[in-house]
Amino acid sequence: MNDLSASPATAALAPAEPSSWRDWLSVYSVALGAFAFVTTEYLPVGVLPQIANSLSITDGVAGLMVTVPGMVAAVSAPAIMLGAGRMDRRHLLLLLTLLLVASNVVSALAPSLPVMLLGRGLLGVALGGFWAVAIAAAGRLVSESKAAKATALIFAGITLATVFGVPFGTFVSTLFSWRISFAVTAGLALLALTAQWLTLPSLPSRGGLQVRALLAFLSRSNARRSMLLLGTVVAAHFTAYTYIAPFLGHDAGFSPGAITAILLGFGLVGMLANFAMAGSITTHLRASLGAVVLLMVIAQLVLPGLQGWGVTLAVLVWGVAYGAIPLGVSSWMQLTSPHLPEASSAMLVTTFQVAIASGSLFGGLMVDHAGVSSALWLGAGIGVLGLAVMLSFGLGKAPIAEALQR
């Protein structure tokens, strides 16, 4: 998830003294944790057909591996923010990363779908909690002047995982098996846990999300409408993308090696688009977000009718579109309620995870009943709904923050 943002209070919590090399090692340990979390979350997408075949289930049912952690994370994100209380954030991060290790081990050894979903459920608990505390903690690990750089490093871990997580799983699975993919990711998570245990200082709680802030956020109609915008756009992506490997293999006829290369290309162009469009997202949010959502919808609509290089090109166009979408929707959410940043952040995580879960669930139902292409068409339809929600905010040139608060 390269769509989260640090709380404005982060800088105020940073230590005043200059940052030491040990401080930066602690930041890198959290960034490594972010990389491991996102890699684990997206790993099944690249190996979904192999897991489905091994566990004797359909591709659509296998999509529950994406649905379950999303559903659990949607609940655990605000729950952990509300319930962590005075717990030292160092201990909380270590516990959540340990759960990540356990999740990968259970998934690697799973003899059946229920055991696999248990492992993925553990991921959901850890994932929601991690995003609830990690970004804000990063700013406390270094001096105030370096807080933004520390947070950017966490985003780098997320971005790299978004680029390499899915093709990594596909590549390792091609060489060995999907179980080895989870085992290697468990090792990555264990490395992150060790690094955090060695480098993270004590991070005493200094306040947190309050129930009244969440209720105040949810009471605003523009906030609820913005959550709907975020949810529809992200669900449009995951309704189809969760089943991209079956489409590329079964429908388009690509080999496992070609699928790995295409998915790597998807991630790489997405990463470039994320950086390239940062300026336009900031200055022309409505137009930029609308353009990339429309681009995604077009790519999903035309993919079933293409073959060969046409499929590859359409997938890369989709990658460009989605590369800019998380930044766009998260910027929109931040501007919805600038005076309630903690509540906005919590609901951002929750809505994003609900969208992942619901998109992969309904996409899976379509795959099993009407074929993989139907999931692409459903994703495009949900994307059109997202565009309609965006149009409900108007087409004026006023900044989103002003338009939303009228």
From TrEMBL:
InterPro entries: MFS, MFS_dom, MFS_Efflux_Transporters, MFS_trans_sf. Coiled coil: none annotated. PANTHER family: CHLORAMPHENICOL EFFLUX PUMP RV0191 (PTHR43124:SF3), PURINE EFFLUX PUMP PBUE (PTHR43124). GO terms for cellular component: plasma membrane. Keywords: Cell membrane, Membrane, Transmembrane, Transmembrane helix. The keyword Transmembrane applies. It is a multi-pass membrane protein. Residues 26-398 form the Major facilitator superfamily (MFS) profile domain. This is MFS transporter. It comes from Pseudomonas arsenicoxydans. It holds the Pfam family MFS_1. It is found in: Cell membrane. The chain crosses the membrane at residues 25-43, 63-85, 92-111, 117-138, 150-172, 178-200, 227-248, 254-273, 285-303, 309-333, 345-363, 375-396. Gene3D superfamilies: MFS general substrate transporter like domains. GO terms for molecular function: transmembrane transporter activity.
